[in-house]
Amino acid sequence: MANLWQKKYPSDEDFPELSKHNNHMARCLTKEIYAKLRDKVTPSGYTLDKVIQTGVDNPGHPFIMTVGCVAGDEESYDVFAELLDPVIDDRHGGYAKDAVHKTDLNFENLKGGEFDEKYVFSSRVRTGRSIRGISLPPHCSRAERRAVETISLDALSHLTGEFAGKYYPLSGMTDAEQEQLIADHFLFDKPVSPLLTCAGMARDWPDARGIWHNNDKTFLIWINEEDHLRVISMQKGGNMRAVFRRFCEGLNKVEEAMKKKGHEYMWNQHLGYVLTCPSNLGTGLRGGVHIKIEGMSKDLKRLDDILDKLRLQKRGTGQ
Prior knowledge:
alpha+beta, Transferase Creatine Kinase, Chain A, domain 1, Creatine Kinase, Chain A, domain 2, 2 domains, six-stranded antiparallel beta sheet, two-stranded antiparallel sheet, 31% helix, globular
């Protein structure tokens, strides 16, 4: 509910105008679902209207299907399951409401993963993680956001060897540190996309946000960006196996340190790892390479067709 007086009005008078919207939320939300869920509230106070607001405010592009909703806490996926389960099924190309997620983060099981470095300049794997018992970024209070930072930094301070590193708070770094992070392409900025700002992601910026990376600059964690933690493993060249090994080990080491203080990642058998956007549920994993494909880049339509068939995404270009 938007406010405490909302119940004075019938739900059909409150239903959002979605006739021109192109997002998964708009495709799945019906007046019947809205009527059933409108007055429900999660234990932390998140409501259906907050779940869908970013999708209501951003109709989307006719050729780009966005998700159109976010979770405010772990319980959102249960309380508003009658909307979010269809959204998840729609976004992920089929995922039943009683499905059990299969997660395999044993890097030994990776087949292949070593690419020809004549074409691959760099390799990376990223994911997000959420700390159980704390509201997600669209809904968290200032105290909760600061707790995420404190819990994370305590865990990171116990990392050693290739994972030892340093934290750079957005509100407290020197000019030299900022310039170096920009040069390394590590720095993240205040969100300007309406998809994020309408979801509440930019509140209190830059309070309790920052960047941590290991001394080798191959393992990076953003704190309090779109998720509690955004974890990235990367390196030059095409050795994705080494990148994935570091990724898996680093994730586990951070959670092991957190568990010693009574904290853990949000996870359940149905959704896997729980994150803010339904598009990132499960492993939350995205693998990517920066590649040189001179010939194919001359025919972008053909390139797009090939990528669609391989279920790959083109995520930017480099010089």
